[in-house]
Amino acid sequence: MLSPSILSHLLTRLATSLLTLVFASLVVFSTLEILPGDPARLMLGLGASEDAIAALRGQMGLNQPIILRYLTWAGHMLTGDFGRSYTYAVPVRDLIAERLAVSLPLALMALTLSMAIAIPVGLFAAARRGRAPDSAIMGVTQLGVAIPNFWFALLLVYVFAVTLRLVPAGGFPGWSAGIFPAFKSLLLPAIALALPQAAILARVTRSALIETLSQDYIRTARAKGLTQTAILRRHALPNAMIPVLTILGLQFSFLLAGTVIIENVFYLPGLGRLIFQAITQRDLIVVEGVIMVLVAAVLLVNLIVDLAYAFVDPRLDIPR
């Protein structure tokens, strides 16, 4: 049961998120409006006929006042109508749903791998603070933070796809081909996304655990004769999860919204590749729709993290 102060905080965060979404919609709409030249002519190219340009201007409502255009566009967004892509000749909503079926599982796989690696590594390093294993782990994680994920992705392709031929080098067969083939095609991209994030999360977990281990209740637990492993797992880790959850929320948002490079390296038909293709094809209607979906996803994840604070540490009156 959530306390009144936590419930009030969550309602405040919900209102703030809605205001942020409105502000983001204004920024996205205004940014595309202030592009030099006629948006319809920009989308169709210099060789387009005047009739085609006039038809696209009518489809986009460019003949209406800018305020009316924004209100119409925002109202359609609220109902799930993101317009129709002139490049693909299908509703943008269908494009996003199709590509999200790749990007969302990829982000979840990468986040799961990141947690599975980082939390045990952070525990191990914190338990051996100042000793050789701790220094070695911190050196490796520093290297993981510094290495660009696209370079790491190319290295993974060369080793596991080209040399060892264990997994495909790129492409996505679709979920209709079966879970295992689809999983294999997402494995290397998930690893390429997960390991740099795991390096960051391991460092945060270690720092949070070291701070927690200096608390009085930990000294009391040691005085009672509990082993270091029991202290870490039963007392230190649960109380160190607040900063870890914060980083997890930020990482999931990055993994969902920041896959443009990785999806292009592996030729995955996800949201990242869709927005890249829409920009190169000057399909501004798709760009607007995808950006707003990503903004909404980031805000939703942040709300979920706020709610998770209360379950991880019920003593919190207001989530940190």
Automatic annotation (TrEMBL):
Q: Which GO terms describe its molecular function?
A: dipeptide transmembrane transporter activity
- List the transmembrane segments: 12-35, 106-127, 139-162, 182-202, 240-262, 290-312
Instruction: Kindly give the PANTHER family that the UniProt entry links to this protein.
Output: DIPEPTIDE TRANSPORT SYSTEM PERMEASE PROTEIN DPPB-RELATED
Please give the InterPro entries that the UniProt record associates with this protein: BPD_transp_1_N (IPR045621), MetI-like (IPR000515), MetI-like_sf (IPR035906)
Its annotated compartments are:
Cell membrane
Q: Which residues form the ABC transmembrane type-1 domain?
A: 100-305
**GO CC annotations, alphabetized:** plasma membrane
A Pfam family the protein falls into: BPD_transp_1
Q: How would you describe this protein's topology in the membrane? A: Multi-pass membrane protein
Q: What is this protein called?
A: Peptide/nickel transport system permease protein
Q: Which UniProt keywords apply?
A: Cell membrane, Membrane, Transmembrane, Transmembrane helix, Transport
Q: Kindly indicate whether the keyword Membrane belongs to this entry.
A: yes
Protein family according to the UniProt entry: Belongs to the binding-protein-dependent transport system permease family.
From the broadest rank down, the organism's phylogenetic lineage runs: Bacteria, Pseudomonadati, Pseudomonadota, Alphaproteobacteria, Hyphomicrobiales
Q: Which residues form a coiled coil?
A: none
**Principal place of residence:** membrane
